[in-house]
Model the fold of this input.
Amino acid sequence: MKAALLTAPGKFETRQLPDPQIKNDTDVVIRVKTIGVCGSDIHYFTTGRIGSQVVKYPFIVGHEAAGIVEKTGSGVTRVKPGQRIAIEPAVTCGECDQCKAGRENTCRNLRFLGAPGQLDGAQCEYIVMPQENCFPIVDSMTFEQAALCEPLAIAAYAVERSPLAAGKSVAILGVGPVGMSVFLVLRTKEIGEIYVTDKLDGRLAAANKLKPKWSGNPKRVDIVKEISSNEPLQMDVVFECSGDPAAISQGVQLLKPGGTLVIVGIPEVDDVPLLIHELRRKEITIVNVRRQNHCTQKAIDLVASGEINVDSLVTHRFPLEETAKAFDLVANYREGVMKAMIHID
Ligand SMILES: [Zn+2]
Ligand SMILES: [Zn+2]
Done:
């Protein structure tokens, strides 16, 4: 099969590799059709690591994928060859304390598609996944939409983890693909005003189509001052979706006493400073979001029902052979890129 291999920081090569094989009778061979380029993949591309997860080259990245079932193991009942599916990238053990407690996203033996030292990724023609990771989609759903259900599931989970209710005011710091996905999920809920920030004007323009109460660029305005003057009692919930340590501080400053900071973004650094006295005095709750848990089907349903339209997130499309171009574009935020998708014919 053809695969786009990350061979060094900033470098991809398209090579022929042996097709992956079924090992367990509940395995499914999937012909990959579409993969989304994710900010987390970009960390592997630019710095070769996220925290302690370090890439050993060559490596296949990619975890936001959709495709067609090619072949099934003898024990597979969930899907059939020819079926179109969305893919849940986290393979869990089902046996550890975390899995038994329903926290599969923090499974002690978790193996994630396209995570170094765990599983090879999806930027190739075929992958093998357990049947539990295969989610059938309706005919009307495109492969792009199905692949975008992966980040959308993270957004749905982040919103689920927040104490949102009618009338609550919310800020989203960073409206890249994940921040926008959070915004899309919030638009399906009855809540109060939504404020958004981003350092890229193009992203603010995209977010403005969802009609936030206010949007602003922290490079030009004091977003804490501006949002707080619009909403003197300040925010109930802040979703930090940028990974920028400065935004974590802004989030703390934007919250009202008793508010909740939901951290979704992945910082490029290992340590971030916390405004501990403000956190303490205002009794702020920090909620961390580790990918998603039990939200894949929910995300698929939101898209299939038409409640959420993810199509506008896609700004660029590339064939597998141009993976390096796609990653370079996303890593450097060129051409107003929001989401770049890779298609395999
Ligand atoms: Zn992702
Ligand atoms: Zn487990």
